[in-house]
């Protein structure tokens, strides 16, 4: 066609071919951009001059430019002109351009409606086909309403080429405007009697779409229409027919149609015993008769398995399906192994025992060369752990952990800990497993695992000597794995005396001296590889040893003095406090540093959705965030029409796993020369929990300059203040409950609770708030960023408002979250705060 | 449902891009990210890749990668078969198809694809019937 045009006139604009050559010859991105800009300028010029001769060529060039990622929307109207042209070649490029350049979100696409309507009634099948093709790709809500009648008519056409395309247009129309479904229902009746496979394929698509969108349509097809026997008949013909050159794909008769039919059967059979019953036999036939040497056959088997799993199928059939997946796992083709693991993961909940039978094959997949397969195998292995197989499975999984890719290690360690906690046959095994995890994947352990391990040891009094010896050996060899060092330090601090006692059964007693223990701890404190948290753990351990060791007290005292001048604020504070304990309150030292009572693991680790990985990354919640949030807060206030100097929004950054810093306060009080208060009982010093204090202090300092500020001061002043629903839309509900701060009557503490009643979780949930400038607002970090579906959980967040003028509270809120992959933004204003809050 | 079909060469340049659903964000940068991720895969890895809320199924033919974005209802193995059928159809029409054939006959490549996949769903898999309209058109313009 372009050659034809070239013959007509000279000089002509560059041909597409030449443009491509030119683009290919350039060496840099900048040169390419220059070529394209020049070409676009010339094309624009010709469009402006209403040039008819080269419009087709120019639009073709634009399509190429568009594909390269450059803007080409100025060609939209030219596409419309080409579509309106009577010449087929023009129409062809015009429709192609329309499908690529037009966007249903822009009104300009509606201008094509009229031409489409004309072409849908054209007497050449290929013109109708072109129009249907474009309509199927760009049809919008308005277009659906305008053109549904035409499409319905074409669906009843006698021409298979038109019919198959009309069916897919109908799918699009139903998606856009579900009410139009009824219009197409009668036409579906005869579609399945067609011989042409293209029509059958698209008809099955259309019916699937209808069943998927409307329960009424689903019931209609199940009952009145006898859909299942019809589909069974078609499927039977396909698998029994033998070789048919027209539909053969690598030796299988129309696998695409088979897959589509199996998927529709799945919809029809789901939760319906009669329909399921009617398809049991054919599913068994497909499952046993399909050729499995090639990918194509396996694609059908895979779909069959999914259908068997989803409908109310006979138990024998389900076992057959799981066995097919088991065979898939042994297949040489990695793609087939991947889909097998994926499907097993879906069915593991319902057919646990059938899946268990393939456990060893699944465990073998942990060694697969493909990372995606290893990931699935890991997930599936954890799903299969139970109290009968826990020993064997854990052995495999710890072996996997040693070799695992770094990205898996964090999940893997956490899952091992959960499984060990749940199914441990005895405490000894449990501790051994945890020790192995800590020593094999030391740096990839989450904070919750550390807290968990510590509480585990503190509860198992008979195993403390054993554990501390093991851990001490481990850190003698390696002090680089921070979580391991933290747990070991804690244990050495608590049970250091047991290290010397040599009272461990079946183990070779450890021959160490007090000085050797202190050497190791000092090495940790002085190592540049140790994190601040680790050092705090170790410092506390050294201090604790001062009441467990007898000969090395002066050395411990010297160490405290040495760190009294540490540049790390936290270490400095701790060691100064500890040194003071030696000098001024030596009589209380042994009481204060007594062994910790058994810790309750459930308090420390459970309920905290996500704890951070330890190590350098502990300093999460970047310090930059207050500034950012403040800016956003300002923007919100502008919306409120507030004054020029809005109240600062200070989000308080807290470490999720850190409970209120009680230990520091207790010591702080003691050191605050409050001698009258008797220091009864051992101080609950759990360094890991109070260690991240500096971050809180820094930000807390912005607020009032007092350190350390307890994270939340709960009070009983909340009686009688009713809670309030601040927001309720699209299934997301946000409720505010109120408390007054008992230390400051002007402070209101609002606890936000977000719940989600839809069936899909909302991710990346962020709540922001702004108040007029007479207030001060402090947003603490939320309990999580995912609001679980079906009210199965909540996200909570504490908001503090300082209201010195006792004015009625007004608040502007902004919400963002991700729902089914879409970003949702919404704003609202809350003005109905109960007056009790400021009176 | 298919979300898009991309044809990309070994250097990561897009040679054909057909979308069946308007991409949420910036098409160009998402496309680049997808291509980068697929090209970075090694031979011993499977042909599927989970990407955001959908899946990528890809297959390499000499210097060309075929990348198909699908939602979670699609049968990955059948999509691989679809890719193979697209390649065979191109092969039949262009007679040993290569990257240049697609580049210099982009409109034809699109048309062939449109006869096979429409609105994110397969229309026709019989190669003769797919190529019939294109051949008729070729005769008309000669």
TrEMBL record, chain A:
GAE domain mapped to chain residues: 719-834
Pfam families xref list: Adaptin_N, Alpha_adaptinC2
GO terms (BP aspect): Golgi to vacuole transport; intracellular protein transport
Keywords, sorted A to Z: Cytoplasmic vesicle, Golgi apparatus, Membrane, Protein transport, Transport
InterPro entries referenced in this protein's UniProt entry, alphabetically: Adaptor_Complx_Large_Subunit (IPR050840), AP1_complex_gsu (IPR017107), ARM-like (IPR011989), ARM-type_fold (IPR016024), Clathrin/coatomer_adapt-like_N (IPR002553), Clathrin_a/b/g-adaptin_app_Ig (IPR008152), Clathrin_app_Ig-like_sf (IPR013041), GAE_dom (IPR008153)
Gene Ontology MF term list: clathrin adaptor activity
Annotated localization: Cytoplasmic vesicle membrane; Endomembrane system; Golgi apparatus
Start-end of Polar residues biased regions: 611-620
GO CC annotations, alphabetized: AP-1 adaptor complex
Region spans: Disordered: 598-626
Classification via PROSITE patterns: GAE (PS50180)
Name assigned to this protein: AP-1 complex subunit gamma
TrEMBL record, chain B:
Domain of life: Eukaryota
Biological-process GO terms, alphabetical: intracellular protein transport; vesicle-mediated transport
InterPro entries: AP_complex_ssu, AP_mu_sigma_su, Clathrin_sm-chain_CS, Longin-like_dom_sf
Pfam family, one: Clat_adaptor_s
Subcellular location: Endomembrane system
UniProt keyword list: Membrane, Protein transport, Transport
Gene3D superfamilies: 3.30.450.60
Main location: membrane
One of the record's GO cellular component terms: endomembrane system
CDD domains: AP4_sigma
Membrane topology: Peripheral membrane protein
Family statement: Belongs to the adaptor complexes small subunit family.
Record-linked PANTHER family: ADAPTOR COMPLEXES SMALL SUBUNIT FAMILY
Complex and partners: Adaptor protein complex 4 (AP-4) is a heterotetramer composed of two large adaptins (epsilon-type subunit AP4E1 and beta-type subunit AP4B1), a medium adaptin (mu-type subunit AP4M1) and a small adaptin (sigma-type AP4S1).
Functional summary from the UniProt entry: Component of the adaptor protein complex 4 (AP-4). Adaptor protein complexes are vesicle coat components involved both in vesicle formation and cargo selection. They control the vesicular transport of proteins in different trafficking pathways. AP-4 forms a non clathrin-associated coat on vesicles departing the trans-Golgi network (TGN) and may be involved in the targeting of proteins from the trans-Golgi network (TGN) to the endosomal-lysosomal system.
Annotated protein name in UniProt: AP complex subunit sigma
């Amino acid at each position: 066609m372009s050659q034809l045009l070239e013959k007509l006139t000279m000089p002509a604009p560059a041909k597409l071919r030449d443009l491509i050559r030119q683009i290919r010859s350039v060496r840099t991105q900048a040169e390419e951009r220059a070529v394209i800009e020049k070409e676009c300028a010339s094309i624009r010029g010709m469009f402006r001059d209403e040039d008819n001769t080269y419009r087709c060529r120019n639009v073709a060039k634009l399509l190429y430019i568009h594909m390269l990622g450059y803007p080409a929307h100025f060609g939209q109207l030219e596409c419309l002109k080409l579509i309106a042209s009577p010449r087929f070649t023009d129409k062809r490029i015009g429709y192609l351009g329309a499908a690529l350049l037009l966007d249903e979100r822009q009104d300009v696409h509606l201008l094509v409606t009229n031409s489409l309507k004309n072409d849908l009634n054209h007497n050449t099948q290929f013109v109708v086909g072109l129009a249907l093709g474009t309509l199927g790709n760009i049809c919008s809500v308005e277009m659906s309403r305008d053109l549904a009648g035409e499409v319905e008519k074409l669906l009843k056409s006698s021409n298979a080429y038109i019919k198959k395309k009309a069916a897919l247009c109908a799918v699009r129309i139903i998606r856009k405007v579900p009410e139009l479904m009824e219009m197409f229902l009668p036409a579906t009746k005869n579609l399945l009697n067609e011989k042409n496979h293209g029509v059958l394929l698209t008809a099955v698509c259309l019916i699937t779409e209808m069943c998927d969108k409307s329960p009424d349509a689903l019931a209609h097809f199940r009952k009145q229409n006898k859909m299942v026997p019809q589909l069974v008949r078609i499927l039977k013909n396909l698998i029994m027919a033998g070789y048919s050159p027209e539909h053969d794909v690598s030796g299988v008769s129309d696998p695409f149609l088979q897959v589509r039919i199996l998927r529709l059967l799945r919809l029809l059979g789901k939760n319906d015993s009669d329909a399921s019953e009617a398809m049991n036999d054919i599913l068994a036939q497909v499952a046993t008769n399909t050729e499995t040497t090639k990918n194509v056959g396996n694609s059908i088997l895979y779909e069959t398995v999914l259908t068997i799993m989803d409908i109310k199928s006979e138990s024998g059939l389900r076992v057959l399906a799981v066995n097919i997946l088991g065979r898939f796992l042994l297949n040489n083709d990695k793609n087939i192994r991947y889909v097998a693991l994926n499907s097993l993961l879906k069915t593991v909940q319902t057919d646990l025992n059938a899946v268990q039978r393939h456990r060893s094959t699944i465990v073998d997949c942990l060694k697969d060369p493909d990372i995606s397969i290893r990931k699935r195998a890991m997930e599936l292995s954890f799903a299969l752990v139970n109290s009968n197989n826990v020993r064997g499975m854990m052995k495999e999984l710890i072996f996997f952990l040693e070799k695992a890719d770094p990205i898996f290690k964090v999940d893997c360690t956490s899952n091992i800990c959960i499984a060990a906690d749940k199914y441990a046959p005895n405490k000894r095994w449990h501790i051994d497993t945890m020790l192995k995890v800590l020593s094999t994947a030391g740096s990839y352990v989450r904070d919750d695992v550390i807290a968990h391990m510590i509480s585990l040891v503190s509860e198992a009094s008979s195993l403390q000597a054993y554990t501390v010896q093991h851990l001490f050996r481990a850190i003698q060899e390696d002090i680089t794995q921070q979580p391991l060092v933290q747990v070991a330090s804690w244990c050495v601090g608590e049970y250091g005396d047991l290290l010397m006692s040599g009272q461990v059964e079946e183990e070779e007693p450890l021959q160490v001296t007090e000085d050797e223990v202190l050497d190791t701890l000092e090495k940790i404190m002085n190592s540049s590889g140790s994190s601040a948290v680790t050092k705090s753990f170790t410092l506390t351990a050294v201090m604790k040893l001062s009441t467990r060791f007898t000969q090395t007290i002066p050395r411990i005292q010297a160490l405290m003095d040495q760190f009294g001048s540490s540049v790390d604020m936290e270490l400095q504070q701790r060691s100064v406090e500890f040194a003071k304990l030696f000098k001024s309150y030596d009589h209380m030292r042994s009481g204060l540093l007594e062994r910790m009572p058994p810790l309750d693991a459930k308090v420390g680790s459970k309920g905290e959705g996500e704890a951070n990985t330890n190590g350098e990354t502990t300093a999460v919640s970047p310090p930059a965030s207050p500034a950012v949030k403040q800016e956003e807060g300002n923007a919100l206030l502008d919306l409120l029409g507030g004054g020029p100097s809005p109240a600062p929004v200070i989000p308080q950054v807290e470490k999720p796993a850190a409970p209120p810093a009680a230990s520091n306060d207790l010591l702080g009080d003691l050191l605050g020369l409050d001698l009258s208060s008797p220091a009864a009982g051992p101080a609950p010093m759990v360094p890991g929990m109070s260690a991240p204090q500096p971050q809180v202090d820094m930000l807390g300092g912005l607020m009032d300059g007092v350190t350390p500020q307890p994270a939340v001061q709960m009070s009983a002043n909340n009686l009688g203040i009713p809670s309030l629903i601040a927001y309720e839309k699209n299934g997301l509900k946000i409720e505010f409950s109120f408390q007054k701060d008992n230390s400051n009557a002007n402070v209101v503490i609002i606890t936000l609770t977000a719940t989600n009643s839809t069936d899909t979780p909302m991710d990346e949930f962020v709540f922001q708030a702004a108040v007029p400038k007479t207030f001060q607002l402090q947003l603490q970090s939320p309990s999580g960023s995912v609001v679980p579906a079906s009210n199965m959980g909540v996200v909570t967040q504490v908001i503090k408002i300082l209201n010195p003028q006792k004015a009625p509270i007004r608040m502007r809120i902004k919400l963002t979250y991700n729902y089914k992959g879409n970003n949702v933004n919404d704003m609202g204003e809350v003005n109905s705060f109960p007056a009790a809050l400021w009176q | 449902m298919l979300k898009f079909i991309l044809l990309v060469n070994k250097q990561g340049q897009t040679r054909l891009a057909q979308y069946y659903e308007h991409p949420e964000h910036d098409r160009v940068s998402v496309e680049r990210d997808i291509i980068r991720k697929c090209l970075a895969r090694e031979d011993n890895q499977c042909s599927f890749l989970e990407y955001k809320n959908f899946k990528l199924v890809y297959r390499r033919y000499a210097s060309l990668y075929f990348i198909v974005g699908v939602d979670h209802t699609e049968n990955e193995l059948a999509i691989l078969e679809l890719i193979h059928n697209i390649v065979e159809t191109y092969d039949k029409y262009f007679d040993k198809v290569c990257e240049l054939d697609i580049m210099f006959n982009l409109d034809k490549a699109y048309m062939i694809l449109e006869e096979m996949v429409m609105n994110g769903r397969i229309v026709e898999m019989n190669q003769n019937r797919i190529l019939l309209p294109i051949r008729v058109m070729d005769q008309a313009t000669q």
